[in-house]
Amino acid sequence: MVFGSRAGLERRRKGLITSAEWREMRLRPLCFRGDSTQLGNRHFRLTPDARTCLLRIYGREIRLELPAMTGNTGEVLRQASELAADKKINLTFKLDGKRLHMTVDYNDLPNHPQRRRPVEALPCGCLGIDLNPSWIGIAAAENRSDPTSLGATALLEHALVKLDLAVDASPQLVRETLAVVADQAISMARKHRCGTIALEKGWVNFGPAAETGASTGY
After folding, report:
1. Does the predicted model carry a pTM greater than 0.70?
2. Among 1, 7, 108, 218, which is 20 to 30 Å from 136 by CA?
3. In terms of DSSP H, where are the helices of the chain?
């Protein structure tokens, strides 16, 4: 095992980096994995306002003053600090020469700012998704009387999404494109509180359960 990487050691041996640069590579990044039993992390402590991080190591305490974080990032940091203080989550910290990095599992945050609030689904609404090679069709419909009657069904909203992807499009571009389409479909389903989502040969029912009468949200 070579601290600072074998490539760095070879660069130092050939005189491509200085002794000070090699020392810096061996010392950083400093990384400590999260530990919920130790207030989120054994060595790092984030203050409730997320403006200061305390590093306790080798009997010393070092204060790292952080810039004010606003928006979703600031909200995530403050939630993570509160949950870590209650010994509920793990917080992994990494310190390099310029930045302090913190890693938190978004599933551990019950009020993540980017998580949509649950919507109670209605059994009379349905969202249909039609997949084609170059187009994806999305439609929301409602039937409040007779589900077997097409005349009793009303079209609430529809959209056609054209997939302008090259034949040799990268997997990442395909995933990003489909993610946008999926987000549009979810937004339409939430807007009309659709109880059923149909995808060609398959469907998912979010409406009231037959046995209990309880409904689920999405």
Report:
1. no
2. 218
3. 6-13, 19-27, 71-85, 171-192
